[in-house]
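Write out this protein's structure.
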Amino acid sequence: MKFKLKLVQAGLVAAMATASAASMAAVFPDFQVAEGSVPGSSVHNFTADKITGNYVEIVTFTPTGVGTGTFDTSIKWNAGQFVANDGTTPVTTQLGSFGTGGYGLYALLQGSGSFSTSGGVTTFNFNPGGSLNVWIDPNLDTTFTAPATGAGAWTTGNTGDPDILIATGALFGGAGTLDPGLSTCVGGINCGSFGTSTSFLLTALGSSYFTGPVPFYNMSFESGQLNSFIVAGTQSINGSLDVVFGVPEPTSIALMGLGLLGLGVSLRRRKQAA
């Protein structure tokens, strides 16, 4: 049974990775937001297709060989702006506005993966799993304390508003590259990039904020840029991170089904041969 579950998980992750690549190549899907669902905010409904923001990441690298190893990461992301028209037009909202109606939107993500370095270039691959939690901060007053290592969780304070959990999820996977030798790596910024995909499940309160489409998209896709850092020990990294939403492409779902069908045949043959 353990062997079967691992193979099933591998099949699902491969299918979702295919879906992620296909979705990111397409036009950003629209979604609708009702800001009046946030306590203290004014009624304001709008359509967007991307959320931009800033992240701070605590990551711990553990070597397993020459130029190879594993990592644990804990990320705090603060949304800064909604964008429409395939990520080209900023939308005027109450997000990040201090005073009456202003609120915050943030996410906390924990994950792990592996890395390898060759010729000064490091590539990162995220493992499926981990945890994603997305929150609304009604009064824009939540404080954050970073964990000591990437295996720990960010802690929050001053959340007596209270903060509102609007979505949960987990990583399907992702990859990134750090290359301090890039011509764009000036002043320690824009020295690499990364992309991940996660499951995305709204809570009941989340459905009153993200109001459309119904049902809402069940995947989120993240992309961002890496600032320069040392790939050793525990590091604090920051950069930009954008989010769009989507669902698995029909072709990817079909491939998933074919993969699981083939897996079933393989397992039956193993059982008969045993």
